[in-house]
Design brief:
Distance between the termini: 27 Å
Order of helices and strands: HHHH
Largest sheet: none
Strand content: under 5%
Structural class: mainly alpha
Radius of gyration: 15 Å
Number of helices: 4
Number of strands: 0
């Protein structure tokens, strides 16, 4: 049985936020960036979930690294949505703060995983 993962729980809750943002953007008739942010934003948690069931330490590190890259991509889309005024500064600040927390956690996990593979 896989034990609870704080980063997974945070990523799952962030995915819910991103899906709601996607629905909001669809109502505003924004279709391109909204699809990008929902794809990358929900992919973070999906890759973490895969990592929790990894077949090896190398597989775990690889999946967590993909989640890290998806989090970085999500940051880009959030910044672009803010700068193009599709989302408010308040919506942006809240979402970016949550994403950056996940990003920092993932960066630490990836670093530790790579160090463990090298030793």
């Amino acid at each position: 049985m896989i034990k609870k993962s704080l980063v997974y729980e945070k990523a799952f809750n962030f995915s819910i936020r991103i899906v709601k943002m996607f629905q909001y953007l669809q109502d505003k008739k924004e279709y391109v960036m909204s699809k990008q942010v929902v794809r990358s934003g929900t992919s973070i948690g999906a890759n973490i979930k895969e990592a929790l069931y990894a077949q090896s330490k190398k597989d775990f590190a690889h999946k967590m690294n993909i989640a890290l890259k998806e989090s970085a991509e999500t940051e880009y889309w959030l910044e672009l949505l803010k700068e193009t005024q599709y989302i408010s500064n308040e919506m942006f600040n809240s979402a970016i703060e949550e994403n950056r927390e996940i990003l920092k956690m993932l960066a630490s996990i990836v670093k530790t995983s790579k160090e463990n593979l090298e030793s």
